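Reagents: none. Just compute today. Shikimate kinase.
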Amino acid sequence: MIISLVGYMGSGKSHISKILSKKLNFKLIDLDKEIVSRYKMPITEIFEKKGELFFRKAEREVLEDVLKTESDLILSLGGGTPVYYNNMEMINSQSESVFLRASVGSLFRRLLRNKSKRVLIARIKDEDLSEFIAKHLFERTPYYNQAKYTVDTDNKSVDEVSEEIIHLLR
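Predicted 3D structure written out:
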């Protein structure tokens, strides 16, 4: 079984995927880290030097490879992954997809702490961040909502969220 975690940046995909992989004894692949490893450069550099279109094509190829070759896997996807090509359709056909849903307020608080490490929001002023998140989330939510399962993460511990996912998939 492959469990794919989808959701906006800051929704907890990376953190929850680590807990899930330990609890289920599944391998963990973070799609962004897999891309960095394959292309030997950070995502910020890929965006700067090769552009977003190159990144989205690379992301699609790596996603396809992982879904074809892995099993007993927790796959943590980038926030934009479900939006491009027919990625969400492929994710749903080859894995159990879970949308980690968080409110704009929660996402704002989480993202403000490490904004500089996030290529899409690093240059956005703090006072404009909440509006950016709300707009972006509005555009992406129709894709996230295609996931087979949805788990709300607001006011829940990582342990509570991971247990809820395990319970849903039994």
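The domain at 2-169 is CATH 3.40.50.300 (Rossmann fold).
Action item: order primers for follow-up constructs.
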